[in-house]
Amino acid sequence: MNLFESFQIRDITFRNRVAVSPMCEYSCQDGFANDWHLVHLGARAVGGAGTVLTEAIAVVPEGRISPADLGIWSDAHIDKLIPIVRFLREQGAIAGTQLAHAGFKASTGVPWREHGKPVPVDQGGWRPVYSSTTRPFTPDAIQPEALTPEGIARVAQAFAEGARRSLDAGFELVEVHGAHGYLVHQFLSPLVNTRTDQYGGSFENRTRIVREIIEAVRKVWPERLPLWLRISASDWTEGGWTIEDSIALARQVKPLGVDLIDTSSGGIVPTAKIPLGPGYQTAFAERIRREAGILTGAVGLITSPEQAQHIVATGQADVVLLARELLRDPYWPLRAAHILKQPIVWPKQYERARW
Ligand SMILES: Cc1cc2nc3c(=O)[nH]c(=O)nc-3n(C[C@H](O)[C@H](O)[C@H](O)COP(=O)(O)O)c2cc1C
Q1: For ligand 1, what atom is nearest to the CA of residue 322?
Q2: Which of 82, 181, 334, 336 sits CB 3.0–4.6 Å from 268 for a disulfide?
Q3: Apex CA 262: angle with CA 79 and CA 60, to 5°?
Q4: pTM of this prediction?
Q5: Number of structural domains in the chain
Q6: Residues lining ligand 1, judged by CB closer than 6 Å?
């Protein structure tokens, strides 16, 4: 496999194996996309990425991480997304969105304003009602309220409605956000899931919500379109979720219609010791791919063209997702293809600058 080789999932052909990893931009009012999203995401499609994923898009308002997050909890959100998706597709990128619910990490501030501190209810915040535990993420966070089984069913339905609206907006890919300590991960991880009902305790019980969400999404998301699932493959903490759990989960969700596991890690407890370094999560993607027989995406400190090419050429992952490197350089794919001497189509408007 080569980085700049096209590949297919279901009926969708991706022009290459580079994807823009989801990145919150904290730039919305009431969840509506705006010019920032058009220019930010559009630039990365112009820059040659095969897949452009939006930031986490909240399926219910209380599922936003911050009050400035993108949302898809009402039909009114669709209209602002349509021209953005259209532009991404016109550039030849596959437009995807990341359906998300923050659970007990909701109602936190914008990094450059409140530095990620909880936003109190009387200052535009809200009580994170949807959580698997009543323990807040950090001691100063707002006390969350545990979801009832009916509340869980409503969440699964909200993911499905988010998928339906994504389809109406023209997206050809949805990713369910099951990583980074957000709601789904709060069920998966034994470190925070203290439930004693059918959603807590055993592996089967803790993973139930993922299966229910995937099944609900697949009912409305067409057979012909790909569905990805992002997970934290390890909690990096004794007694937490492990890579073996991730492999077992991947085996369960594949027959339900998940096509690719986007393999991240961490985020459920602030004390985890994560051995940050180039490609530090890639070995997880490689194991899931090999042992669960499913496509994977590698993400995390992938920055050089050679490193990205090595990951796909050695079969560790089918896709590489870049976040911060693509903030530094939206044209990274054009440059990487040149360095690797692999084919890539330049936007015709930029042809005269071709390396
Ligand atoms: C500004 C910013 C916002 C992010 N927002 C999200 C998000 O909405 N959803 C998500 O799954 N990950 C999010 N992430 C994590 C990235 O997608 C990625 O997994 C992480 O940054 C590691 O990749 P990198 O080393 O290429 O930056 C965010 C990262 C950054 C830097």
Answers
A1: 26
A2: 181
A3: 40
A4: 0.98
A5: 1
A6: 21-24, 55-56, 98, 177, 179-180, 230, 264, 299-302, 322-325
Residues, the chain: 355
Instruction: Provide the domain limits for residue 316.
Output: 7-353
User: What does the pLDDT average to over 131-143?
Assistant: 83
**Strand-strand pairing, 12-14 and 7-9:** antiparallel
C-alpha atoms less than 13 angstroms from C-alpha of 172 in its C-beta half-sphere: 20
30: CATH: 3.20.20.70
CA of residue 50 to ligand 1 center, whole Å: 17
Confidence of residue 138 (pLDDT cuts 50, 70, 90): confident
**Could you read off the pLDDT of 13-63 as tens digits, one per residue?**
999 999 999 999 999 999 999 999 999 999 999 999 999 999 999 999 999
In this structure, is residue 1 part of a structural domain?
Answer: no
Tell me how many degrees the CA angle 113-119-122 measures, rounded to the nearest 5: 120
Q: Extract the tokens encoding 336.
A: 């990487």
The alpha carbon of 66 and the centre of ligand 1 are apart by a number of angstroms equal to 15
DSSP symbols for 329-354: -TTHHHHHHHHHT---PPPGGGGGG-
